């Protein structure tokens, strides 16, 4: 039972660390004058030159 709890805690720590890194990356992009659109493209999995999901022009 203790091993299962330790495993669950380790997984939770990994998720928290990933979320923290994602937040730092998004903040860095905003601070580098790339704007919100770059962050949204990143979150949507946008890759220039590839077909797929696109964000509408005109944004915020």
Characterise the protein shown here.
- Helix 1 (about 1-30) packs antiparallel against helix 2 (about 35-45).
- Helices cover about 65% and strands about 0% of the residues.
- The protein has one domain (about 1-45).
- It has about 60 residues and is mainly α.
DSSP, total strands = 0
Count of separate structural domains: 1
Number of helices: 2
Low confidence ranges: none
Sheet having the most strands: none
Rg over CA atoms: 17 Å
Mean pLDDT: 77
Query: Outline, from the CA principal axes?
Result: elongated
Structural class: mainly alpha
Sum up the structure in keywords.
mainly alpha, 2 helices, 60 residues, single chain
How are the secondary structure elements laid out?
Blueprint lengths: L1 H30 L3 H10 L16
Helix pairs in contact: 1-2
Structure described in brief:
Helices cover 67% and strands 0% of the residues. It has helices spanning 2-31, 35-44.
